[in-house]
Amino acid sequence: MLSGADSILHYSIRLLPIQYSRFFPNFRIGLKGKHKSPFVRFFDKKRNTLNKPRVAAATSIPEGAGWKSWAVLILLSGIWGTSYILIKKGLEAFSPTQLACLRLSVASVSFFPLLLQRFSRIDWARWKALLGVGLLGFGIPAFLFAAAQARISSSMAGVLNSLSPLFTLILGIMFFGLKASRAKGLGVLVGLGGAALLILLGEEAGMGSEPWYGMLVVLGAICYAGSSNVVGAHLRDMNSVTISAAAFAMIGLPAIAYLFSTDFLAVMAHEPGAWRAFGAVTLLALFSTVLASVIFFRLVQWTTPVFASMISYLVPIVAVAWGAFDGEPVTLIHFMGMALILSGVYLVKK
To answer: What is the pTM of this model?
Structure first.
């Protein structure tokens, strides 16, 4: 399932730091002249080693993107878009804390063989950055999304999480020297306006009993953005799958220990539907957390970062569709909020 990661490493170094390429395929980070950040010096060095046709191909959607590439893009959108309904099903038997710990535990166990294989390649001197990725990219969001979806609909959670590219830009400007145009600033405002619409009018639209819990999803999106910036600034020369394996090694053991300190085993033994919920969380961990990341980097390798970044527009649509299929009300407010957020994402990526 994780084969081909080495080829991903070579490709990600030749193009852009892959975490940034997912959201901002054309962005460069840093200041001018002698104040350039290490990130932009690295980018400029790699850019100068590539011929112009290859760079152009990396920053545009390929005209010859075949049906296989589109099929993989749709498959990946389906996997990530299904995450929210799986969280909802997991909450039918587990508490938000148990669900988050179980999700992290399964993912950590899945990454363990890869960790053993790549242990010597990991620069443990950068453990703080790896821990930051583990907490911001996986640990904290797992708890935030589970707690939020105990009170809001899965479709609302899926739409709000589309804010991640906007917060990646905001944090990049604030802490990592990222420069942005007025159009991108407008995109941030438009996207945040869509989020505000969903949160303020969510209860009237039937999105949940307490739509203000949507702020937890917003915080989760901020965490994802922080993780992307940490990778871009401190771990750009390390393979993305290796980063994930190291990050889960640091957060997995505490999650497993805490999970078994709760009444998790009693729930599994006596709670009706516990095994069905366990299956949902296992699918969430294996597919949405482990497999999807590998597929995404493969997709970037086959096509371009711009082509792969189109997933940001498809995931919320899948999330809303799953919510409607499961009986959640889908109203005009859903589509208005989603349209504003995705318009903001478009302006930010433009």
So the answer is: 0.75
